Structure to design on (235 residues):
């Protein structure tokens, strides 16, 4: 057999072996690489835009949520990365985005619990309508003004408020009328200080224990000398 003929046979045998190898085996290294990360993931950095940037801004409490990855957004991302022991680059890579998504889910869960508290406050407050006013009473069948708010919050949220309107106001965070939602507390005041506590019922109304000879009821807010307070932080 000539050397040329032998060489041709060797090349043909090699080609046959190569053609016999399954395509899946050739593709295997690519599949393994794909398991290590999302090959379609795009880094978020200065100049990036879109809904994923908005998610980052909402989660990290960026003041202006506009979908534009600006300097302020980058600074919030850096602080988040530092808090999670992620390389502080200001660029949202896959690890950073995974942490941001987990934080967003936690925020959503906390907001559900927060909303449920307000639902319980209103349900319990409405259930007391018709109970008589009695000075110094804090339930379960008669109330004065701060006794009602104390009773409702303890039963709805396990929060212990003092039986005194001024102390209740000081324990909360002052909010505006526009920020108030049904279930927040309302306080009336005059030159002598706070003299009345009530539960905000929405649309300018309150649920309260008013004065001797009346029952717990819903009334419109009757004065401009009014303060609103939130007793637990918004998630």
């Amino acid at each position: 057999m000539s050397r040329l003929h032998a060489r041709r046979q060797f090349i043909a045998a090699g080609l046959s072996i190569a053609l016999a190898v399954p395509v899946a085996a050739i593709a295997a290294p690519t599949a393994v690489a794909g398991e290590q990360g999302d090959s379609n993931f795009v880094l978020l950095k200065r100049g990036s835009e879109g809904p994923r940037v908005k998610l980052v801004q909402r989660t990290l409490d960026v003041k202006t949520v506009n979908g534009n990855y600006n300097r302020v957004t980058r600074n919030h991302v850096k602080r988040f990365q530092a808090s999670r022991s992620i390389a502080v680059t200001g660029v949202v890579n896959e690890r950073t985005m995974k942490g941001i998504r987990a934080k967003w889910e936690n925020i959503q869960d906390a907001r559900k619990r927060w909303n449920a508290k307000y639902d319980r406050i209103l349900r319990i407050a409405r259930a007391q309508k018709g109970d008589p006013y009695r000075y110094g009473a804090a339930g379960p069948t008669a109330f004065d003004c701060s006794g009602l708010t104390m009773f409702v919050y303890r039963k709805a949220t396990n929060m212990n408020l003092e039986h005194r309107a001024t102390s209740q106001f000081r324990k909360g965070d002052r909010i505006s009328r526009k920020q108030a939602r049904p279930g927040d507390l309302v306080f009336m005041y005059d030159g002598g200080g706070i003299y009345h506590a009530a539960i905000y019922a929405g649309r300018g109304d309150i649920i309260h224990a008013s004065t001797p000879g009346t029952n717990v009821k819903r009334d419109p807010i009757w004065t401009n000398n009014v303060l609103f307070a939130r007793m637990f932080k918004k998630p």
The chain is about 45% helix and 15% strand. Residues 3 and 16 are 20 Å apart (CA to CA). Confidence is low (pLDDT under 50) at residues 1-8, 10-36.
